[in-house]
Amino acid sequence: MSSLFLIFLLCITMATAAQLRSGFYSETCPEAESVVRQVMKNALIREPRSVASVMRFQFHDCFVNGCDASLLLDDTATMLGEKDALSNINSLRSFEVIDEAKEALERVCPGVVSCADIIIIAARDAVALTGGPFWEVRLGRLDSLSAKQEDSNEIMPSPRSNASSLIDLFHNYNLSVKDLVALSGSHSIGQARCFSVMFRLYNQSGTGQPDPAIEPKYREKLDRLCPSNVDQNVTGDLDATPRIFDNQYFKDLVAGRGFLNSDQTLFTFTKTRKFVELFSKDQSEFFKAFVTGMLKMGDLQRDQPGEIRRNCRAINGRHMNRLWESGRERIVI
Ligand code: HEM
Questions:
Q1: Is any ligand 1 atom within 6 A of the Cβ of residue 91?
Q2: Does pTM top 0.85 for this prediction?
Q3: Alpha helix locations (H) across the chain?
Q4: Which residue from 70, 142, 308, 309 has the least number of CB within 10 angstroms?
């Protein structure tokens, strides 16, 4: 990562609690959280995986210029959005669930609830609805006026990442080693494509060999799922209980049954291993650390103008744009 880019990352700071707060919509849209919750419940029934897919949005939105729903913007004639960035293309899915929540909210309290906040509420609900912890979310974000595909390309980690580079990346956001391991526990739900694991099975680090960290029986299973000539969009489960948010993911890592290289590396690397072991033995420790991590990640913001989008896929028309140039001030620490 270039040093210029590191400086840029450092411009993303933790917002102070005074700006984002729980109960932010209690006067202006008291139904906000229950409306999103209902949409997430319906999504879960319709397609269980979709809630995991939506939960992933928080990571891919917040790491790229803060939690501002820049991720949700479609391309325009003059702007390449983040949806087609390297880590997102053919991978991020279930954007329609956020659209549904936004449409429902616009009916109840038009122009009030930001898309950035919808992502945060929906991610929390995805976890709670699949058996994980519930927490009070801090709200009051604004939606960005643009998106930056090249920033997403530069920032978002590859499934090939090792623990050491992940530690460095998370450190840039004030997220600790424990936060990294706990947040990776989000892979307790959902799926990944063969595309994200093929190199581990057939050519780990250019050796022409599989990753020796994969437990042999699990490797046979992955070989069957993803033979070398497979359609790389075929998907496999990220842990043994992909519809339940629990600590099975960490038990799997201890057993050498992590799907992604970036997962298994958390057990092979000494600095992260102790947290994998802790969370594999104590689910409540995992839940506590996960909530801490999600709150910290949800506080990432850049000092930039924003608005409440009417449609999460596009910025508002200039004529109806409610722009806060620096109206709701951000205190940058
Ligand atoms: C630590 C670095 C991380 C890396 C390298 C990483 C990478 C990946 C990759 C490669 C996939 C599968 C993509 C595909 O094959 O299409 C995936 C899926 C997923 N990721 Fe991560 N991830 C990381 C952290 C996180 C975090 C912090 C969260 C949320 C808090 C998250 C939530 C998810 C979820 C829920 C899925 C499954 C989505 C679905 O089923 O559609 N990930 N991740």
A1: yes
A2: yes
A3: 3-10, 32-46, 49-62, 95-108, 115-129, 149-155, 163-171, 177-184, 198-202, 216-225, 248-254, 261-268, 270-281, 283-298
A4: 308
